[in-house]
Design a protein that fits this description.
The complex is a heterotrimer of chains A (491), B (145) and C (119).
Chain A: H1 2-23, H2 28-52, E1 58-61, E2 72-75, H3 77-104, H4 110-129, H5 133-152, H6 158-188, H7 193-200, H8 207-223, H9 232-239, H10 242-267, H11 270-275, H12 278-298, H13 303-324, H14 327-358, H15 369-372, H16 374-388, H17 394-408, H18 412-438, H19 453-471, H20 474-486
Antiparallel strand pairs in A: 1-2
Chain B: H1 5-27, H2 36-54, H3 56-62, H4 65-88, H5 103-135, H6 139-142
Chain C: H1 2-7, H2 9-27, H3 31-52, H4 73-104, H5 109-117
Helix pairs in contact in C: 2-3, 3-4
Classes of the chains: A mainly alpha (491), B mainly alpha (145), C mainly alpha (119).
C-alpha cells in the first residue's frame, strides 16, 4: 500500500514537516526534523528512480479523480532523475547547514529558516512530480516564494535588496508563465500535460499557441537565468546564507531546465522549434551566455559571485543542448544537469566553508586561505577541474556529449563554443587557485583553522561523487537515454 | 481611536456580524460562491477591524501571535492529514469518498474539513501578516522624537 | 474592423492594464510603487483568465433548476490559487521593503544603489 503512494509521499512528507518545523522550539529540533525528512525523501527518490529505470511510468491520481480532469502525478525517468537531484542535494546540504546556519541566522529565525527550506524542497519536488501544467505553476511559486525568504535571511543588508530584485524578476517570470498557460488552456481546454500534448499537435501553428509558448518560454528563461535575463542570480547566490547558496545553485536552475525540457518536448513538441525562429534564438542566447558569463566570471573579485557567473555559463550549455533539439543534445543536457548539480554544490560548499572561517568571500579577504585550509582547497580544486571538464571528472562526460551532439549536426560553431567555454573556465578556476593558494596572506594576516568536519564530510562526499560519476558513467547515461526516448523529439 | 464612542460601539456590533458572515461563506461554499480562502480572509478582517479600533494590545490578549502560529500550522496539518487519512484507508491522497460509508457523504465531509482547514490557515496567516506589519517599530522615526 | 475591436474589449482592457503594470514595475525607482505595479500586472492576468472562462448567457456554475448554460468554473478556481500566490508575493515584497527601509533608511532604488557603491 505504501509503495504505490511513495511518489506522492515525496511531496507530502516535507509539506507536513514544514509547519511542524516552524513551531518546534530551539535550534536543534527543527534541524533534526529537516534532516530526517530530507534523507527520507532521498531514499524515496532513489527508489522512484530505480522503479522507472526500465522505461516504465508511474502515474498517480490525486483524490482518485481520473486525468485529464483530476491532477495527475506522472513520473518517468527524467522526472525521477531531477527529483533525485533535488532530494539528494537537500539531504547532503542538511548536515552542512547545521553549523553555517547557527553562525549566520539569528536564533529566533532558525525554526522559520528550516520551515522555509522544507517548503522550498516541497516546491522543487512538486515541480518534478506533477503532470499538470497549472499545478506546476503553483509549485513553481511555492519554491520561488520560499527562495526569496531564504535569500533575504543572509547576513548582509544587501541580501534584502538581492531578494527584492529576485522577487520582482521572479514574479514577472511566473506571471508570464501564467499568461502562457492561460492562452494554451483557452485554446485546448485542458491542463493535463499528456492531454495537452495530444490536443496541441494539430494546432501547433495557431497564433494563440505561439503567443502562449513565447510567454511560457520567457517566464521559464527568467527562472533558469538564461542570458540576458540572468541579472538577479549573482547577487542572490552571493548574499544568500551559505547552505542556501549550495542548495539553490545545485537545484533551482536545474529544475527550471527540467521544466523547459518537459514543456518543450513533451507538452509542445520539437516541431514548435522548427516553425518559429525559437531554435536559433535558443542557440544564440546559449552561445552568448556561455562566452559572456565565463568572461564576466574571470573579472569577479568575489568567490561566490565568480561561481554564480560560472553557473550562468553552465546553464547556457544546457540551453545549447536544448536548442540543438536532437536526441544527443538533450541527452547531453540531462547528463549536465546531474553533473553540474554535483560540481556546483561541492564548489559552493567549499566557498561556504571559506566564508565560515574567513567571514567574507571577497578575494582580498581570503588571500592564501587555501594553504591554511588544505582539505577545503583540495575539494574546491577537484570540483573546479570538474567544471573545466578534465577527463576523470563528471564534467568531462557532459562536455564530451555536448561536443558529440554538436558534431553530429556538423555545427562546428557550437563545438567551438563548448571548447572555448571550457578554456575560459580554466582561467577563472585558475584565478581561485591563484588567490587562495599562490598569493601570500600578507594583506589580512588572518590565521584560520581547517573547516570543521560537519562541513568537510558533505563537501568531500560530493567531490567523490564527481570523480565516481566521471569514471562510472553507466547510470547517468542509462537514465538520460531512457528519458530522451520518452520525449517527443524529431531529429 | 480609543475615545471615539461611535466607532467603538459600531465595532463591537460589527464584529460578530463579520465573523458570522465568514462562517456563512465557509459552510455555504457547496451551494453558492464561497469557500475556505474567502471565509478566512473575511474572518481575519473582523479581527483586523477590532485591532484598528481597540488597539493591538487588546487584540493580542485575545489572539497572541504564538497561538496564531500554531493555528496556521495546524490548518496545513489538518489538510495534509486528511489526505494521509484517506491514504491509510486504502485510497488515493485526498480521496474523500472513503471517509464515510457512502461516497457522497464522505465527499461532503471531506471538502468541509479541507475548506475549514484552509480557512483557519488563511485567517491565521493574514493576521500574522497584519501583526507583523503593525507591531514593527520604526527605528528611522526614533531620531525625530 | 471596429467590430473586432469592440467584441474583444476584454482583451484590450487586459493589455492596457498589463502594460500599465509592467511599465510601473520597470520604470519606477520607488520599491513600493514597483510592488503596486506588479499587483496591477498580476491582476490583468486574473482578468484574462476570468474573461475567457465566461460563456455567453451562462450563469454562475452552480447546479440549479432551470439553468443549463454555465460559465466555466475552472478558470475561477485557477485564479483563486493565483490570487493567493499574488497575496503572498505582495506581503513578502512589502515585508522586504520594510526591512530595506530599516537597513538603508530609504526605499528609492537609486539611493540604495548609491549606498551600496561604498563598500
Amino acid at each position: 500500500m505504501i509503495e504505490q503512494n511513495l511518489s506522492l509521499l515525496l511531496v507530502v512528507i516535507p509539506l507536513l514537516a514544514a509547519p511542524v518545523a516552524a513551531i518546534l522550539p530551539g535550534l536543534r529540533p527543527p534541524w533534526l526534523l529537516a534532516l530526517a525528512v530530507t534523507w527520507l525523501c532521498f531514499v524515496i527518490a532513489g527508489w522512484q528512480l530505480f522503479t522507472v529505470m526500465d522505461g516504465s511510468i508511474i502515474s498517480y491520481e490525486l483524490g482518485g479523480w481520473a486525468p485529464p480532469w483530476g491532477i495527475e502525478y506522472r513520473i518517468d525517468a527524467m522526472n525521477a532523475l531531477v527529483a533525485l537531484i533535488v532530494a539528494g542535494i537537500a539531504a547532503i546540504t542538511m548536515p552542512y547547514a547545521l553549523l553555517t546556519v547557527e553562525k549566520e541566522i539569528p536564533r529566533h529565525q532558525v525554526p522559520l529558516f528550516y520551515s522555509a527550506f522544507l517548503l522550498c524542497i516541497v516546491g522543487l519536488l512538486g515541480i518534478t512530480q506533477t503532470g499538470d501544467i497549472f499545478n506546476l505553476f503553483v509549485f513553481l511559486e511555492i519554491s520561488s516564494l520560499s527562495t526569496y525568504v531564504l535569500i533575504a535571511m543572509g547576513e548582509q543588508r544587501r541580501a534584502l535588496t538581492s531578494a527584492y530584485q529576485y522577487l520582482i524578476m521572479g514574479s514577472i517570470g511566473a506571471t508570464f508563465v501564467l499568461i502562457g498557460i492561460g492562452l494554451v488552456y483557452a485554446e485546448t481546454g485542458t491542463l493535463n500535460m499528456q492531454d495537452l500534448h495530444l490536443r496541441l499537435q494539430p494546432i501547433l501553428d495557431h497564433r494563440t499557441i505561439h503567443t502562449g509558448f513565447a510567454f511560457i518560454s520567457v517566464g521559464i528563461a527568467l527562472k533558469l537565468a538564461l542570458f540576458p535575463l540572468h541579472l538577479w542570480l549573482p547577487n542572490a547566490y552571493k548574499y544568500a546564507p551559505s547552505a542556501i547558496s549550495v542548495f539553490l545553485s545545485a537545484t533551482s536552475t536545474k529544475v527550471a531546465v527540467y521544466v523547459m525540457l518537459r514543456l518543450l518536448f513533451s507538452v509542445f513538441s520539437s516541431d514548435i522549434l522548427m516553425i518559429e525562429p525559437t531554435e536559433d534564438i535558443l542557440l544564440l542566447l546559449g552561445i552568448f551566455g556561455v562566452i559572456l558569463a565565463s568572461v564576466t566570471a574571470i573579472y569577479q573579485r568575489d568567490i561566490k559571485r565568480l561561481l554564480a557567473y560560472s553557473s550562468i555559463a553552465q546553464v547556457s550549455y544546457m540551453v545549447l543542448g536544448i536548442g540543438m533539439a536532437s536526441n544527443m543534445g538533450v541527452t547531453a543536457t540531462l547528463i549536465h544537469v546531474f553533473n553540474h548539480a554535483l560540481m556546483k554544490a561541492a564548489l559552493f560548499m567549499a566557498a561556504g566553508a571559506v566564508v565560515y572561517r574567513a567571514g567574507s568571500s571577497r578575494f582580498e579577504k581570503i588571500d592564501g586561505m587555501g594553504r591554511q585550509m588544505p582539505w577545503t582547497f583540495a575539494a574546491m580544486f577537484i570540483a573546479g577541474l570538474s567544471v573545466i571538464g578534465i577527463p576523470g571528472t563528471a564534467g568531462f562526460i557532459s562536455k564530451w556529449y555536448f561536443v558529440l551532439a554538436a558534431l553530429e549536426q556538423h555545427s562546428w560553431l557550437i563545438a567551438l563554443v563548448v571548447l572555448s567555454g571550457s578554456l575560459l573556465s580554466v582561467v577563472y578556476i585558475w584565478r581561485i587557485v591563484e588567490v587562495m593558494y599562490l598569493r601570500p596572506a600578507t594583506d589580512t594576516g588572518l590565521s584560520v583553522k581547517e573547516a570543521p568536519y560537519a562541513l568537510l564530510v558533505p563537501m568531500w562526499s560530493l567531490v567523490l561523487a564527481n570523480i565516481y560519476f566521471g569514471i562510472n558513467t553507466e547510470l547517468t547515461l542509462n537514465i538520460a537515454d531512457i528519458s530522451v526516448k520518452l520525449l517527443d523529439i524529431t531529429d | 481611536m480609543k475615545h471615539d464612542l461611535i466607532l467603538r460601539v459600531i465595532a463591537k456590533y460589527l464584529f460578530p456580524v463579520i465573523a458570522l458572515f465568514a462562517f456563512y461563506v465557509l459552510f455555504h461554499g457547496e451551494y453558492g460562491p464561497g469557500g475556505g480562502f474567502q471565509a478566512g480572509v473575511i474572518l481575519s478582517v473582523a479581527f483586523i477591524f477590532y485591532a484598528l479600533v481597540f488597539g493591538m494590545e487588546t487584540t493580542e490578549k485575545v489572539l497572541p501571535l504564538k497561538v496564531l502560529r500554531v493555528l496556521a500550522s495546524s490548518g496545513v496539518l489538518t489538510y495534509a492529514g486528511t489526505g494521509v487519512a484517506t491514504l491509510l484507508m486504502g485510497g488515493n491522497f485526498l480521496d474523500y469518498g472513503l471517509l464515510l460509508s457512502s461516497k457522497a457523504a464522505g465527499q461532503q465531509l471531506g471538502i468541509l474539513i479541507i475548506e475549514l482547514s484552509v480557512g483557519i490557515t488563511v485567517s491565521a496567516v493574514m493576521l500574522i501578516i497584519f501583526y507583523t506589519f503593525a507591531n514593527r517599530r520604526r527605528p528611522w522615526e526614533d531620531h525625530h522624537d | 474592423m471596429i467590430d473586432v475591436f469592440i467584441s474583444h474589449y476584454n482583451y484590450w482592457i487586459v493589455i492596457l492594464l498589463m502594460m500599465a503594470g509592467f511599465y510601473t514595475v520597470i520604470n519606477h525607482g520607488n520599491l513600493i510603487k514597483k510592488i503596486a505595479g506588479l499587483n496591477i500586472f498580476q491582476t490583468s492576468v486574473f482578468l484574462l483568465y476570468i474573461s475567457i472562462g465566461y460563456v455567453d448567457n451562462g450563469t454562475t456554475p452552480i447546479v440549479a433548476e432551470g439553468f443549463t448554460r454555465y460559465a466555466n468554473p475552472l478558470p475561477h478556481v485557477l485564479i483563486l490559487t493565483a490570487i493567493v500566490v499574488g497575496v503572498s508575493t505582495t506581503a513578502l515584497g512589502l515585508a522586504l521593503v520594510v526591512r530595506i527601509k530599516e537597513a538603508y533608511g530609504t526605499i528609492e532604488e537609486d539611493e540604495i544603489q548609491e549606498q551600496d557603491m561604498i563598500p
